[in-house]
Amino acid sequence: MWAVSVCDYSIGLHGWGMAHTLSSTHECVTHEFLCFAEAHAALTAVQWQLGQAGKAEEHFAIATAIDSRWKRVTYIQTQTRWPPKLYAAMEKFLSIVPG
Asked: Of 48, 47, 36, whose CA–CA distance to 6 is shortest?
């Protein structure tokens, strides 16, 4: 599926400091593929990092409705290949989200 490749590429760009690229790319992908949980989870982290708390919470709700494992940092660390900055942003987001 091309969407996975595009998302992986933009996640890689985030590691190089291109958070806005990830945000715009994942917005397009999640618009077309509503059930792509990892794209919603990655958007959660980057939008939180960019100070867009409302959008982050919205995408987190979608990601966890599709797959509740996105609520666990250990799942994200073992099942994804995100750059450290994206992991850190997601960890900060998860630390303030109730259970």
From this structure: 36
